[in-house]
Amino acid sequence: MSVAFRRESDDEHLEPKFELPIPAGPNLVTARGLQLIRERRAALEARLKGCTDPDQTTVIQRDLRYWTTREITAELAPTPSGNKVEFGTTVDILLQGKPRTLRIVGDDEADPAEGLVSFNAPLSRAMLGAEPGDLLSFGGAADAIEVLNVEVTSA
Question: Among residues 142, 147, 91, 97, which one has the least CA distance to residue 117?
């Protein structure tokens, strides 16, 4: 039989398993974000202790490496002034005429559906440093964002 039709094992046909990508740049977090990271790591450690499936153990260990790294590298962001859009502020805006309330948070805490936007997201970057009353360009449109209010968010 030709070597071309022989296979050593089924393992060579499995999808490769990669580490979870760590976002580039600083790992800024809010106090809430740091707490969420710690809770995720603790939950994974608890799951790992009770896990007997080798494949599931591998997945949990990979996730645990990610969250441990995120906890170690976390930098608690300074308390914002509230005078302008900064990390940790809640911002009321009109986005192309539609009202939105967003909170600028760290990468791991971001959940756009809940109004939690990463400080690395294009929308956040467009707003950082803006003050109430400012009109900002976004997505190729001039004056797409109007900053209405900026507040310091507790927790």
Answer: 91
